[in-house]
Each structure stands twice: as C-alpha cells, then as structure tokens.
Amino acid sequence: MTTAQKLTLFYLKSSVKITSLISPQWGASIAFSIFCTPYRKPRNVPPPIFHQATSFDIQVDGLTIHGYRWNPNALKKILILHGFESRAFNFDRYITPLLNKGYGVVAMDGKAHGNSEGKTTTAPEYAEMIRVLEEKLGKFDGYISHSFGGIALCLYQENHSNPAAKMVLIAPATETKSAIDLFSHFFGLNTKIKESIYAYIKKKSGNDVSHYSINRIAPKLANPILWIHDKDDDITPLSDVKPLMDLSPGNIEFMITEGLGHRKIYKDTAVMKRIIDFI
User: Fold this and answer.
1) Quick one: pLDDT at residue 2?
2) What number does CATH give the domain 47-175+212-278?
3) Count of beta carbons in the 10 Å neighbourhood of residue 249
4) Is the dihedral of CA 182, 242, 175, 116 positive or negative?
5) Quick one: 75 exposed, middle or buried, by C-beta within 10 A (0-12, 13-18, 19+)?
6) Of 68, 113, 265, 279, which alpha carbon lies 20 to 30 A from 26's?
7) Would you list the domain boundaries of the chain?
8) pLDDT at residue 23, as a whole number
9) Rounded to an integer, what distance in angstroms lies between the CA atom of residue 80 and that of residue 91?
10) Helix, strand, or coil (residue 125)
11) 136: exposed, middle or buried (C-beta count within 10 Å: 0-12, 13-18, 19+)?
12) pLDDT-based confidence at 4, cuts 50/70/90?
C-alpha cells in the first residue's frame, strides 16, 4: 500500500469514527457511502479484443453507462457482469471463446466503474442497468457474473424473470451482511456503528440487509446455474454458500476450487473451460 493510499484509508476511517461519535446515523451514512465507492481502479488500456468491439452507451437513472458489443447479429447473446472495483476489460479472455461458439457478447462497465459515470454504486442500481440493457437489446440467453455482479444478477432475475437463460455465478457476493461485516472489521467499526449501517440500509431501501442475499433468491429461480467458488476466498467466503449447498437445489451445479481466491478464479483456465462448456 502506498503512502497516499494509507493516508486516504486513515482519513476515511477517521471520518466514520468522528461522525459516528456525533451521530450514529450520520456515521452510518458516511460508512455506507464509502462501502459503495470503488477506490481501486483496474487497468485502463483496452485489451486487443476490445478494439474489435462496438462501443455503446445507455442511460440509467440519468447517468451514462458504457458497454461493448461483439457479433450483434448473433441469434443468441451473453452478458458479462464484472465485480466491484473491476471492469469489462478484465474479462477479455472470455470474448473470443464465446464468439467462436457463435454467440453475441455484451460486456458492461457498471456504474462508477471503467468508462461509466457515477461515484458510488449499489447492487439494486447494477440490477437496474441490466433491466435497461435488456429493454434495449432484448433478453440475454446467458449471463457470466463475478462477485458484486452476481448479487445484482440475482436481484434482477428475482423481479424480471428470464428462466431459460443460463447463469454463471463466479465467487458471487452471496450475503450482503457478510460484506458489511468484513468492511466493518477492516475499518475497525464497533457493533453499534455496524448496526446503524444495517438500519441505514433499511431506511434507504425499505428492506433489511438480509433481503440482499443470493441464498434467499437462488432457490426461487428456475434458471440453470453454474456456481463457482474457491475455498480460499477471503472476500466472499465459501461458508456463506454452505447453507445453499446443503439444500442441494436441482438447478445449481457447484464447482469448488482451491488456491484461486476471489480474483484469480475467473482467470483460471479450468474455470473458464467449465463456464464455456456450461454456456
């Protein structure tokens, strides 16, 4: 971590703690804003395959969201949804294999990521992007999602069912509560502040934090789902997935890897092959 990053982290932690002393609600709003802000910026240089894409924009809640499209006249199309602090460029290795299978491919930079506008983002906002995109391009035949993209996809499918489409969930953000717990631990936030964040989410969205759960949504879906998770994932822990695995839902195939963690998993050759075969 650079000196500048350390100073930024110190400032953010101090902001939450000081505002929480004045007002737990104020502290929670500051903490939630930080939680929803992507600070890590991945590579800016387009991989070669992106030079072959048709770039396009859609408007979502007044912001310009940027996307890339290949083989637009294909009979079937796949949507790629990146994770938090990621972008479409990171999934370049999936494009050519899908094109070789005859699919059209769309990859988006979510709000506040890549070339899209915005400062912060939430899973419901990401889900709304999918809704607007399908309104423009029609229903997709399959989705490949990672982490934050996975919870957004499931929230979308719950309310805008597309049961024939195949869904790939790579290390999905299974439980939002766990993500907030991890965030709170990293920032050294006490239980009172953490519970204020839960209350802030309820006030802002009308739903308890438990609503934003793939374990809650996935059993309701009819879609064929390939769920890939690593034993050593320290961002979206495998322990969050265990309750669903114990249910043995008939529409979900689980692939459990080891040693890949949270970010290497979607770049692994064996994982990529399994995903392309499933699609």
Assistant:
1) 58
2) 3.40.50.1820
3) 15
4) positive
5) exposed
6) 113
7) 1-35+176-211, 47-175+212-278
8) 72
9) 8
10) helix
11) exposed
12) low
Burial label for 216, CB within 10 Å (0-12, 13-18, 19+), is middle
Give just the sign of the alpha carbon dihedral 257, 259, 265, 268: negative
Give the whole-angstrom CA distance, residue 248 versus residue 250: 6
Q: What is the pTM of this model?
A: 0.93
In whole angstroms, give the CA distance from residue 106 to residue 143.
10
Are the CB atoms for 263 and 232 separated by under 8 Å? no
CA 146 distance to own-chain centroid: 6
Dihedral sign of CA atoms 174, 175, 176, 178 in order: negative
Any idea what DSSP says for residue 209?
Answer: G
Summarised one tens digit per residue, pLDDT across range 201-221 is 999 999 999 999 999 999 999
Query: Which residues, 6+ apart, have CB-to-CB distance to 145 below 8 Å?
Result: 80, 81, 152, 153, 167, 168, 169, 170, 172
Q: Nearest to residue 168, comparing CAs of 95, 104, 227, 221?
A: 227
166, 279 contact by CB (below 8 A): yes
